[in-house]
């Protein structure tokens, strides 16, 4: 809530305080580290966020928590994408999708990851694979009873780059 309200420093302080608790379960350590990576990306920059996200990934893999693992990989995807290292970004997001599978328990995170994959494939000029990823995102939304509205912008951008301007509109 603090982060969403723009209080990045307070959010970092509270997260670090929670992470310092001796009785913090390992699964929550991994999840809070993944969240801290996101907050620190905005508060302290990409180098700090990458370091924390890698810690989160290690902690998540050690606990076997697919949610925390996928979240840390998604954080790393964003960092690699901004740095224009789209090959590494794709590796991260594909690993996250492999972990999440078609699990409906993490439908929102999987939908985000599919959108990220489409974006990355566009940046790699992998147009047929980008179209497939978009189709998979829409099919997943339908299977889980969610609207495919989240894919509309991604679809418009893809159609634009493919020269399908009427469809983009």
Concise description?
Helix content is 76%, strand content 0%.
Task: Write a concise keyword list for the protein shown above.
single chain; 169 residues; mainly alpha; 9 helices; 76% helix
Would you give an account of this structure?
This protein is mainly alpha-helical. It is 76% helix and 0% strand. The chain contains 9 helices and no strands. The N and C termini lie far apart (35 Å).
Layout of helices and strands:
Elements: H1 8-19, H2 26-43, H3 46-63, H4 66-82, H5 86-100, H6 107-123, H7 127-143, H8 152-161, H9 165-168
Helix pairs in contact: 1-2, 2-3, 2-4, 3-4, 4-5, 4-6, 5-6, 6-7
Report on the biggest sheet: none
Q: What best-fitting shape do the alpha-carbon axes yield?
A: globular
Succession of helices and strands: HHHHHHHHH
Q: By helix and strand content, what is the structural category?
A: mainly alpha
Strands, total number: 0
Q: What is the CA-based Rg, rounded?
A: 17 Å
Distance between the termini: 35 Å
- The tally of helices reads 9
**Poorly predicted tracts of residues:** none
Q: Which oligomeric state applies?
A: single chain
Question: Approximately how much beta-strand content do the residues carry?
Answer: under 5%
